[in-house]
Specification:
250 residues, 4-stranded antiparallel sheet, 9 helices, 29% strand, globular
Length: 250
């Protein structure tokens, strides 16, 4: 569970988030949507302490300000947008997700290796264990980083544009995986730019604009209130396909 109350955050003395109060519950996928520059990525960075903030942040009921870095990393995994390309193998990178659990002398054990391999299997990339990260395509590299976040074994995942570099087939499989993780009881907060995907795969949406929360609700509620039109200036339509709604933008 992730909670913020009156959260303010920014960079270099410039406030970007203006008193944000939001809750992400266990067992749900919460999609953060809003125009470029509205503060979605800043919110995720504030949750993990990358940018300075004021107000209250709690993870699993614990104040983040009182958690040392290694303990916070056992509660909260974060996949950022821009990621480096280290000169290591994919398996070694996924193992980095186990770092918060290591004791001196900081060596990965058989249990860590098993968890890392299982994370890669979830994403159908187990065969890349010995492949250098630099030799991978952008899409495969993205999946390796997601596997690292899964290997961290937290109950809360923050994913900033996780479908970046993935073709449509892999995008849909990844979004399906987020639903699976939520069914296991995890809390997922994702920044998504594809509004139809956010409406179809998220349990709730948080619509942001100019560093503030414009609206929160289920896809049905957000659609009915026209909140995305207010934020983006676009018209959303939908049609029934089987037992679910499909959305598209005009």
């Amino acid at each position: 569970m992730i909670e913020t109350r009156n959260l303010r955050a920014g960079y270099g003395g410039r406030e970007i988030l203006h008193g944000l109060t939001l809750t992400a519950e266990p067992g749900e996928v919460l999609a953060l949507v809003g125009p470029n520059g509205c503060g979605k990525s800043t919110l995720l960075k504030a949750l993990v302490g990358i940018v300075p903030s004021e107000g209250e942040i709690r993870v699993d009921g614990k104040p983040v300000a009182q958690l040392p870095g290694n303990l916070l990393a056992r509660h909260l995994s974060y996949l950022p947008q821009g990621k480096s390309v280290p000169d290591i193998t994919a398996g070694r990178l996924v193992l980095h997700g186990r770092f918060p659990y290591l004791n001196y002398p900081r060596r990965y054990g058989p249990g860590d290796v098993s968890i890392a391999r299982q994370a890669m299997e979830k994403l159908d990339i187990a065969g890349l264990w010995d492949t250098p990260v630099a030799a991978l395509s952008g899409g495969m590299r993205q999946k390796v980083y997601i596997a690292m976040a899964l290997a961290q074994g937290t109950e809360n995942l923050l994913l900033d544009e996780p479908t970046t570099y993935l073709d449509i087939g892999h995008q849909l499989r990844l979004l399906g995986l987020t639903r699976e993780l939520a069914r296991e009881g995890r809390t997922l907060v994702m920044v998504l730019h594809d509004l139809p995907q956010a409406l179809e795969y998220a349990d709730r949406l948080a619509v942001m604009n100019s560093g503030q929360l414009l609206d929160t609700g289920t896809p049905e509620e957000i659609f009915a209130r026209g909140s995305l039109r207010k934020a983006f200036g676009v018209t959303l339509n939908r049609f029934r396909a089987g037992d679910r709604w499909r959305y598209y933008c005009d």
